[in-house]
Structure formats: structure tokens, C-alpha cells
Design goal:
The complex is a heterodimer of chains A (about 325) and B (about 300). Chain A contains 14 helices and twelve strands. By secondary structure, chain B is mostly helical. Chain B has two domains: about 50 residues; about 260 residues, Orthogonal Bundle (MetI-like fold), CATH 1.10.3720. Chain B is built from eleven helices and three strands, in the order αααααββααααβαα. A two-stranded antiparallel sheet of chain B has the order 1-2. Chain B is globular and about 75 Å long. Classes of the chains: A alpha/beta (about 325), B mainly alpha (about 300). At the A-B interface, strand 1, helix 3 and strand 2 of A face strand 3 of B. Strand 2 of chain A pairs antiparallel with strand 3 of chain B, so a sheet runs across the interface.
Chain lengths: ~325, ~300
């Protein structure tokens, strides 16, 4: 008797678990934005449907800029972005009375990879990478540096349809440039790994998460983005020193949408599950301390961006020193 | 009689044969291209077709992915498009051909409608976005006005946003010029003597149109409608501009529901790196062709039902 009473009291007192909240929630959640983050959104939406069958999450792919345009017009609940919000977009949001919660979800990083037997390349500048990958680029290692062997470079790349390729092209060659045609392309990362493993003169690139999986077999090359060579690793991507091939990924949630229980339930789920889905689709998950910061900021519904200062200018510097 | 230059019989027969051969080659070429297209798509995608593929929603895992949301979305949007574009288009054509006074203004309108059918569909997407999704910026930044319960079939929201209704109306804009021009041609093809006969017997213009010209031109009007719907179901660009999402995990429940369409789903899958996504893209194309053919079959059925012989 006493036990059952106690049990009743405990059940009554304990707050509802987020899962039961989600199961009851219904209605639309509109998400749009970056095609890079689409992979995380897609995984989250699909799994969330199993938890909350009555919530209809729709995911668009208008790109980061296009997503912010719709977000700042109040057309969507959440936008995904492969960079932090820009001052102009903050102004636009303010003009339309839109407040938002900023939530980093993961990091995206590309690693430049060579064969273990390649002893000469320790670091490459972005200009070197351009000379290797751009149309009309160099043929041999010695073309790049006279001290290096006079042997043809074997160039590997992920498929031109992949987001990895787009990101590399934009960061290294530029939007209007052309990648050379005489390179080995494969949609399958395993084929790239094998190609680079088998060939002493090979160079290639893919997500850092994939380099971590194949650690020891291949060697990641340090990249000099203008401030000295930096090795590819989750840490250097996080602190923002691995430039220009590392970047944070974000979600921005419209504060006005937080009155909708289905949006809150979805973002609750997103914040908890993103570290699980990010590596699955090739990104680096947030480290535990950053993850708990994101959780705290979400629970507190902290609005505004930390990447645009009070003076209305973009804040530069390592991610960790900016995001609190 | 004008003089026909004398050509020896042998040469005339030869010319005739050459012309016939040229025609056969042209037809063969067109059929070949179509056959190659269909065969390659079927070979890529047919093994992915299954009841699950139709019944499942999109997924990041190609083996579990299906086309339920875009398939139902396409059917919703095309139905809305047909229900709006056909009456408006045929009505416009009847007015222009049977009621409007011949003059510079009518001629100007007629030429412009023909020109409109050449405008890229993405332009109509932008018009649809401004007019239907945003109501020209009316209530921008504030909540839309709602009528009814969001769960009910009769729910309405102003402005329409990226809803099936906005999508259907935008596609109606895309196909309207096609419907109007085809219907005009159809009405013009009805012999004038019939009209004069009807009017001479004392019928009003409306009686003439409703009992004579319209039934007589209906088969050709329906042919125009088939062309228009074939275009509507294949359009991705205007829908993309409206901001329709690529991944939807529910089928529309009313005119205000979020939706996606088959061409967008195909575009999404075909652009992915993994080969298995290319296969389900091919499977989705097969389904789209099947839907298109059933739309057309329906139109042909209606045509045959309504056809009355010209007496």
C-alpha cells in the first residue's frame, strides 16, 4: 500500500520525459537552408518521425544564403547554415522582428591525404593545392617544389556531385574556377582510400572524419592558409585554425516558433541526437564540452548570434573563443 | 491552270520514295531516342520498384526510401492545376474566339498569350511566389490569417505560403497559355457554316457555344489539356522557387499542407553521389511516367465519352 502510494507520488512528481512530449506533439516543422547540413537534417527528420509520428518535418535545400532569406522573412521555423549568420542577415532579421536561437551542430572539415611513403610533402599552401587541382595545373611534384621528386602526381577526388567536392572547389579554386579533368574521381570514399594506399605519388581529399577512421594507413597533410601549416584534426577544425578547409555547421531556430510544441520537441531531439548523426554523414561531432554549452544555451533559449559583435561587425577568431 | 513542269514518271516515283525514306528515318530517330531513354531508365530502376517504394517516405537509406510524399504531392498539385487552368483557359479561349470583337486589342492579347507559352517556367515560379505564396508581401513578418482547424480538410491560411494550393496555382500559370492557345485552335477549327446556321435559327451566342462549338471542339481541347498536364507534372523549377521542401514525411491533408513533387525528388536523388540513389531516381522516373500516362488515359477517356459527332 505504502509502496504503491510512493510510486504514484513519484510518477506524479517526475517531469514528463521529452519522448512522451514528442509523441503527443503534432503539426508542421519547416526547415530549410544549407545543402551541407541537409544530410544531418534528413537523418534527424527521419528518426524523429519514429519518435513523433504526428509531427510533419519538411526539409528544404535552398542553400545557406537562401535559407537565411526565408528565415529572416519568417517563412520557416529553422534554417540550417554552413557558416555563422552574417551582419546583413542579422540586420534583416531585426528589421522583421525576428529573434533566433543559434545552435552549432557539428564541424565540417576536409583533409588532404597522401601515401605513407610520401616523405617529402609535410605541408601545402592553398596556392599549392590550387596548382595541383586547378585546370592546367602542375604535372610532377618537382613542378611544385624543385626539391621534390620528378614524378607525376596521381590526383584523386570525390565525385563532382558530392558536397565534399563543392566545398573543396569553392575553398581552394574559387566559385568560377575549373577543376582539371585528368584526375581519378570516385563517389566511393573506399576507392579513394585504396587508390591513395596503392600509389606513392597519390594525393586526394575527403572528410576529416574519414581520415580518422583510416588513421595510420594514410597521412593527412598540414594546410597553410596564410598563418603557418596546421594539421587536419577535429581539434584544429574546432578552434578555427584549420583554414580554409574547416568550418562549423549551425541551425538557427526562430524564437517565435518556440510557442509551437512540435518545434520545441524537434529541436530538443536535434540537440540530443546531432552528435550521433553528424559522424554518420561524414562530419565531426561537437566535443562534449561544446555540446553541453549548446544544450545549456538551448534550454535557456538564449537568443541572438555570438558571431556578430555589438558593433555590427563579424567576429573573427577561433570557434571556442567566440561561442560560449 | 498553271503550268506544271513535266518530270518523267521514273523520277517522280524516285522522289516520292526518297521523301518516304526521309520521313521513316526521322520517325525512327525520334522513336529510337525515346526507346533508348526508356530502356536505360527501366534497366537502372525497375528492380527498385516495389510496393514499399510507393508506400515509404523518403529516407537517407536508399533501401528504405520511397516516394509516397512526392507521388501524392504531384497528384494533388496537378489536380489543382487541372481544376483551375482548364476552366479558366477554355473560358478565355471561348471569349477570345466567340465573343470578343475583332480589333487591335483582341489581336494584341492573342499574340501576347502565344508569347507567354514561351516564357521559362522559373519566371512563373517567381510570379507564383510573389502572388500566391506571399500575396505581394501582405502581412510579411506577421502571422498568417487562419480559417478553420489545421487538421481539417477545409483549413485555409492567407497568404498561402509554400502550400499545395500555391503550387497548383503556380503550375496553372505555367500551363494556362498552352491551354488557351490549344483551345483557340480547336474552336477555330469548327466550321463557320455551323455557327451561321445556329445563329440563323435564332440561337443566342451562348446557346451556340454551349451546344455547338464547345462540344465540337472538345476532342482538340482535351488534346491541349493532355499536353498541358504533361508539362505540369514534369515541372520542378517553379515549385522549387516557391520554397517547397525536398524532404516531406507526410502526405497533404488539405490545401495548406507542405508538399513536394516527383521531379524534385528525382532531382534530389539523381544529384547524390551514391549509385544506389541513382537507381531509386530511375525508379521514381518510371513511376512518374506511369502517372503521366494514367493522366493522359483519363483525358482520352473523357474525350471519347464527350465526343459527339458533328451533324
Amino acid at each position: 500500500m505504502l509502496l504503491t502510494t510512493l510510486a504514484t507520488i513519484i510518477t506524479l512528481a517526475s517531469p514528463q520525459s521529452p519522448d512522451t512530449d514528442a509523441r503527443k506533439a503534432s503539426g508542421p516543422v519547416r526547415l530549410d537552408g544549407s545543402s551541407t547540413v541537409f544530410l544531418i537534417s534528413e537523418a534527424t527528420a527521419e528518426e524523429f518521425k519514429k519518435v513523433a509520428p504526428k509531427v510533419n518535418v519538411s526539409v528544404g535545400m535552398s542553400g545557406t544564403g537562401g535559407g537565411f532569406k526565408r528565415f529572416c522573412a519568417g517563412e520557416i521555423d529553422i534554417t540550417a547554415a554552413s557558416r555563422a549568420i552574417k551582419p546583413g542577415e542579422v540586420d534583416l532579421a531585426r528589421k522583421n522582428n525576428i529573434e533566433f536561437v543559434e545552435l552549432p551542430v557539428a564541424f565540417d572539415g576536409l583533409s588532404i591525404v597522401v601515401n605513407k611513403a610520401n616523405t617529402w610533402v609535410t605541408s601545402l599552401t592553398v596556392a599549392d593545392l590550387r596548382r595541383i587541382y586547378a585546370d592546367g595545373g602542375v604535372k610532377t611534384w618537382s613542378d611544385l617544389n624543385p626539391a621534390w621528386p620528378n614524378e607525376a602526381i596521381q590526383i584523386f577526388s570525390p565525385g563532382t556531385d558530392s558536397g565534399t567536392f563543392d566545398y573543396f572547389k569553392e575553398a581552394v579554386i574559387g566559385k568560377d574556377g575549373k577543376v582539371r579533368g585528368d584526375i581519378s574521381v570516385s563517389e566511393d570514399d573506399n576507392v579513394l582510400v585504396r587508390g591513395i594506399l596503392d600509389n606513392k605519388n597519390a594525393i586526394g581529399f575527403f572528410g576529416i572524419a574519414y581520415l580518422m577512421e583510416n588513421e595510420g594507413k594514410l597521412r593527412g597533410v598540414a594546410i597553410d592558409g596564410g598563418k603557418g601549416p596546421v594539421a587536419p584534426s577535429p581539434e584544429t577544425v574546432e578552434d578555427g585554425t584549420y583554414q580554409p578547409l574547416g568550418r562549423p555547421l549551425f541551425y538557427y531556430v526562430n524564437a517565435a516558433s518556440l510557442t509551437k510544441p512540435q518545434v520545441v520537441a524537434f529541436v530538443d531531439y536535434l540537440v540530443e541526437k546531432a552528435p550521433e548523426f553528424a559522424p554518420e554523414v561524414g562530419y565531426i561531432k561537437l566535443p562534449a564540452d561544446l555540446q553541453s554549452m549548446v544544450r545549456t544555451n538551448w534550454v535557456a533559449r538564449r537568443t541572438g548570434t555570438q558571431f556578430v559583435g555589438a558593433d555590427g561587425k563579424e567576429v573573427h577568431g577561433p570557434f571556442r573563443s567566440i561561442y560560449r | 491552270m498553271t503550268d506544271v513542269p513535266h518530270v518523267p514518271v521514273g523520277r517522280r516515283i524516285l522522289a516520292n520514295r526518297l521523301f518516304l525514306a526521309a520521313c521513316v528515318v526521322c520517325t525512327g530517330l525520334a522513336v529510337c531516342v525515346l526507346a533508348v531513354l526508356i530502356v536505360s531508365i527501366v534497366m537502372d530502376g525497375v528492380h527498385r520498384l516495389s510496393p514499399d517504394f510507393i508506400a515509404n517516405f523518403a529516407s537517407r537509406k536508399p533501401d528504405q526510401a520511397g516516394i509516397r510524399a512526392p507521388l501524392v504531392g504531384s497528384i494533388w498539385v496537378c489536380s489543382i492545376c487541372a481544376l483551375t487552368a482548364l476552366p479558366v483557359g477554355v473560358g478565355t479561349a471561348i471569349y477570345l474566339e466567340e465573343f470578343a470583337k475583332r480589333g487591335r486589342l483582341t489581336e494584341f492579347i492573342r499574340i501576347n498569350i502565344s508569347n507567354l507559352s514561351g516564357v521559362p517556367s522559373i519566371v512563373y515560379g517567381i510570379i507564383g511566389l510573389t502572388a500566391f505564396s506571399r500575396f505581394f508581401g501582405w502581412r510579411a513578418g506577421s502571422d498568417p490569417i487562419e480559417f478553420g482547424n489545421p487538421d481539417s480538410l477545409l483549413y485555409l491560411r492567407l497568404p498561402f505560403g509554400s502550400s499545395v494550393l500555391a503550387g497548383g496555382l503556380t503550375l496553372a500559370l505555367v500551363v494556362l497559355p498552352i491551354v488557351i492557345v490549344a483551345s483557340q485552335e480547336a474552336i477555330r477549327a469548327v466550321p463557320n457554316s455551323l455557327r451561321q446556321g445556329a445563329l440563323a435559327l435564332g440561337s443566342t451566342r451562348w446557346q451556340m457555344v454551349s451546344r455547338l462549338t464547345l462540344p465540337a471542339s472538345l476532342p482538340m481541347v482535351m488534346t491541349g489539356a493532355i499536353l498541358a498536364m504533361s508539362r505540369a507534372i514534369g515541372e520542378a523549377a517553379p515549385i522549387l522557387v516557391l520554397g517547397a521542401p525536398l524532404m516531406v514525411l507526410e502526405t497533404p491533408s488539405n490545401l495548406m499542407s507542405e508538399f513536394t513533387v516527383l521531379p524534385m525528388q528525382i532531382f534530389n536523388w539523381a544529384g547524390r553521389a551514391k549509385a544506389s540513389f541513382q537507381e531509386i531516381a530511375a525508379a521514381a522516373i518510371i513511376v512518374q511516367l506511369a502517372v503521366l500516362m494514367s493522366f493522359n488515359a483519363f483525358a482520352i477517356l473523357v474525350r471519347q465519352r464527350l465526343q459527339t459527332p458533328l451533324q
